[in-house]
Amino acid sequence: MNLHNDIPKHIAIIMDGNGRWAKAHGLPRAQGHRAGAESVREAIDACKELGVSYLTLYAFSSENWSRPPAEVSALMVLLERFLESKVDDLMKQGVRLRAIGQLDRLPAKTRAMLDNVIAKTAGNDLLTLVLALSYGSREEITEAAKKIALMVASGEIAANEITPDFFGSQLHTSGLPDPDLLIRTSGEMRVSNFLLWQISYAEMVIVDKFWPDFRQGDVFAAVKEYQKRHRRYGSV
Ligand code: FPP
Fold this sequence. Notes:
The protein is 44% helix and 16% strand. The chain has 236 residues and is of the alpha/beta class.
């Protein structure tokens, strides 16, 4: 196994276990999220080092809006701090930022900061960092189905033009390749409404650590595991 050949082009990560990490350390949940933001930097650095082209992080799900308001604001503040403190690094590292999800549900200030970093980094092409924010896959698929229904109703397209590729082009991830490797931390074996369409053929690696304990070496280990798998895409 080596870390130079057969590198996944797109890694997606379900960052799970911030709350349990905080509990295990006798800390408030917000501290777990704060420690988790450090692991985000580790994941980006590891992907840069490996030459991964796309990294998608599940930072805030549609369901996360139902958490206590103080936790939701702590997460928004962390995101704002990340955007503010990381923009120079992203520019230096050649990282482009994108976001998927119902972004209009984000607080106006958070959204403005996000749009600003997305615009500023738009010309970078070494790694695309995709933040899933207020994201839910069923919502994304439902929105795409509605858009397509309207296109058919208005005569813009015919029903038989709806192919899997066309459907995929109407999702928030339009233009991004599907993830090759999906990592989930904290030992849970669930996909939790994350990229349901896009992970059809992704290899899954479950890491038995809480997200705040996740380090660059865990990305390397997951990629080594991925390289051992034989991807068959349904054939023999
Ligand atoms: C899951 O842990 C994690 C989240 C809901 C949020 C992820 C956010 C971060 C890692 C920090 C900020 C992100 C960026 C991009 C700066 P959980 O709270 O569900 O943990 P639990 O299952 O142990 O309760």
